[in-house]
Specification:
7-stranded mixed β-sheet, 23% strand, alpha+beta, Ribosomal Protein S5, domain 2, 2 domains, 10 helices, Alpha-Beta Plaits, 287 residues, 4-stranded antiparallel β-sheet
């Protein structure tokens, strides 16, 4: 038996009006390895305090009886519980390792479908598996983020419960909101691929989730204003939160991230700035 290993990127999802369907892979990675032998899983990086009972990678492997003769070792640089796709990365890693362990084809489409089903939505699973900017339509469509664009984050120390954030969403919306969201979602896809600041500004203004979730993030409105003053084209909540993500010109992302983080901190919501590069590739096997 030889070691089996994969790596999976972080992701930001619910990009503006692309709620539950548009996500972007980030150059922060989870690495998971099955090594021959027995024993409990071990964890490092942001997962240093993880327990096997709470680990989605371990759960995916256990449910598929894919751990026989192997011990799981996981390390991650992805912040946990702040809307940067840590859960999707863990699920994708577990599903991929299970396929390797059981001798099944390393089928990324099948791994994506399984991860989307486990998550209940595909916008983190898509970039985690395929990398880059992904639109989860009737199938995953990999788009090309314009070369002049980059993303900036403010990452609070405290997270937001995904379940709580989901529970805040209304069961139905008016026709007017639905039409506005449709127009903004289409504009955002074009803005991100064309590099059009005006379309990005329009498209990042989500009308489904952010109006109900912004109160979970102290200092949200002030941080959005500060980011726009620093040059951001648009700002929204990353995933379910608590991180904020801004789209800006490459030369402005460091300043935008710093202003957002400082503004949240001033509002009593301590946060760190992060200017993460986009990960062009997603799930892959490693030596």
């Amino acid at each position: 038996m030889t070691s089996l290993a994969v790596r999976v990127p972080a992701s930001t999802s619910n990009l503006g009006a692309g709620f539950d369907c548009l996500g972007l892979a980030l150059d922060l990675w989870l690495e998971a390895r099955l090594v021959p032998g027995e024993g409990p899983p071990t964890y490092g990086g942001t997962l240093a305090r993880m327990h096997a009972a709470d680990d989605l990678t371990y759960r995916m492997l256990s449910e598929r009886e894919a751990l026989h003769g192997y011990r799981l070792v996981v390390t991650s640089a992805i912040p946990i519980g702040v809307g940067l796709g840590s859960s999707a990365a863990a699920i994708v890693a577990g599903l991929a390792l299970a396929r390797l362990s059981l001798g099944n084809p390393f089928d990324r489409d099948a791994i994506f479908r399984g991860a989307a089903q486990e998550e209940g939505h595909p916008d983190n699973a898509g970039p985690a598996v395929f990398g880059g900017l992904v639109l989860a339509a009737h199938r995953s469509v990999k788009l090309t983020l314009h070369k002049d664009l980059a993303v900036a984050f403010a990452v609070p120390a405290g997270g937001v419960s995904t379940k709580e954030a989901r529970d805040l969403l209304p069961a139905s919306v008016s026709r007017d909101v639905a039409v506005q969201q449709s127009a903004r979602s289409a504009a955002l896809v074009l803005g991100l691929t064309w590099g059009d600041p005006d379309l990005i500004d329009f498209g990042m203004d989500d009308r489904l989730a952010v109006p109900h979730r912004r109160r979970l993030i102290p200092g949200y409105d002030a941080a959005v204003g500060a980011a726009m003053e620093a040059g951001a084209y648009g700002v929204t909540i990353s995933g379910a939160g608590s991180a904020l993500v801004a789209v800006a010109a490459r030369e402005d992302v460091v300043a935008v991230a710093a202003r957002m983080a400082a503004t949240l901190t001033d509002a009593g919501n301590p946060a760190e700035a992060l200017a993460a590069r986009v990960a062009a590739e997603g799930l892959s096997t490693i030596g």
